[in-house]
Amino acid sequence: MSHINRRQFIKLAAGGIAASSFSSLSTAQANSVDYKAIVFDAFPIFDPRPIFKLVKTLFPEKSDQFSLMWRTRIFEYTWLRVSANQYKNFWECISDALLFTSTQLNIKLSAEQHQQLMHAFLNLKPYPDVLSSLKVMKSKGLKLAFLSNMTPHMLITNIKHSGLEAYFDYVISTDEAKTFKPDPRAYQLGIDTLGYKKEEIVFTAFASWDAIGAKWFGYPTVWVNRLNFTSETLGENPDRIGSNLDTLLKFAT
User: Fold this and answer.
1) Residues 101-153: tens digit of each pLDDT
2) Is 127 exposed, middle or buried (0-12, 13-18, 19+ CB in 10 A)?
3) Residues 142 and 170 in one domain
4) Which of 94, 122, 150 is where one domain is finished?
5) How far is CA 140 from the centre of its chain?
6) 219 and 199 inside one domain
7) What are the angstrom distances between the C-alpha of 141 and each of 159, 168, 202?
């Protein structure tokens, strides 16, 4: 099961399955659009920093190098596999990238350490502004959905642990299309699932490349740059950029 509506999710969670996933528009233009849904990457909602704090705890002498290499290799593997038509899901790409990183840095990664680091991706917590922002969005009648490279299991588990089951109408994994963002087939899943036009769906990205990919696809796009990343130089900009969900609220509501 690759995308799940709220009723299905609550049923799965109750059964325990979830525990076992420079503006290009003026303000006037943006406010004239009747947005019907907001689609999120996972990381504007879930804070990934504890994963890399764990890296620092386990490998203090090489933690910065380890974290950067692991994070970079994860996404390189997703893109390489899409390009070569050799798909593995996101969980498997994370694991493969972890093994590469430890080998490259001459770190003996025990089975326990591997399990600890992988499990960290199943125990993410939301940023402090998430709950209040989601409440505002729901009060405005907006449909909310994830559209993430994470597997369904990763998404569902993190939603359940965070107590956010009531706020998301759909949980969409790119695993359904056997691809990863920024492949247009991945972004198309939002339209196919929600049934709205792309201009009626605001895409909310964590990474600059994802924001640009969504903008290339045609979504109105907000880049929530929580960790102050440098913008990619790809000849396109999202509609709004901010450091938290307040920017999204101002744009979409």
Assistant:
1) 999 999 999 999 999 999 999 999 999 999 999 999 999 999 999 999 999 99
2) middle
3) yes
4) 122
5) 23
6) yes
7) 20, 12, 14
**What does the pLDDT read at residue 6?**
60
Q: Is the pLDDT of residue 22 over 90?
A: no
Residue 41 among the catalytic residues: yes
> Which residue in the list 34, 41, 96, 169 is annotated as catalytic?
41
190-217 confidence digits (pLDDT tens): 999 999 999 999 999 999 999 999 999 9
Domain count of the fold of the chain: 2
Give me the domain span that covers residue 54.
49-122
Amino acid at 69: M
Which residues are paired to 203 by β-bridges? 39, 221
Q: Are residues 189 and 64 part of one domain?
A: no
Domain C-terminal end among 122, 156, 180 = 122
Q: Whole-number mean pLDDT of the chain?
A: 91
